[in-house]
Amino acid sequence: VIGKFSIRLVPDQEPNIIIRQIVEYLQKVHLRRCSLNRLQIKVFRDGRPFLGDVSCSNYRVAYEALTYVWTKPPDLIRDGATISMATVLREQTDRDVVLIPMAECQSFAHEGGERMSVRNYINGIKVFASYMAKLKGSKASCILPKAFEKH
C-alpha cells in the first residue's frame, strides 16, 4: 500500500522541523503496531510558505489594478500556497514580491484537471497590464532594483 499526503505550513513553521516530527510520529505508530510491513517515507518537496508584506506599495498597486479591471476590490486572503520560488525571490533580491492570481479557487490549480476560464485569462492579462502601468507611475521604491528604474 502506498499512502500520499500533503501538508501546508504556516509562516512560523520550518519544513525541516515539521518533516522530522512527522517521520518520528509515523515510525513510532508503525513500531507500536508490530507490523511485518515496512515503512518507507519519502519527501518529494518541502518549501517554506510564502508570506508577502501587504503594507508594501507593491501590494497597493496590485490592489488598484485588480480593482480597476474587476470593478470591485479583491479579497485579500492567505490561501496556504507554498510557492517556494516567491520566497527565494524575496530573500535573494531583498525586494517585496506580490502574487497576483488569474484563476479562481475552483480552477483545480496544480491538479490533473487544472483549468482557467477565458474570462479570467483575458482579465488576468488586463490586470497585469494595468499593474505594470500603475507600477510605472507609482513611487514604489520597494519594487524594482535600481538597474530597472530608468527603463
Automatic annotation (TrEMBL):
UniProt keyword annotations, A-Z: Hydrolase, Metal-binding, Protease
Transmembrane segments: none
Entry keyword annotation includes Protease: yes
One GO biological process term: proteolysis
GO molecular function (one): peptidase activity
PANTHER family registered for this protein in UniProt: BETA-ALA-HIS DIPEPTIDASE (PTHR43270), CARNOSINE DIPEPTIDASE 2, ISOFORM A (PTHR43270:SF4)
Protein name: Glyco_hydro_20b domain-containing protein
Organism: Hymenolepis diminuta
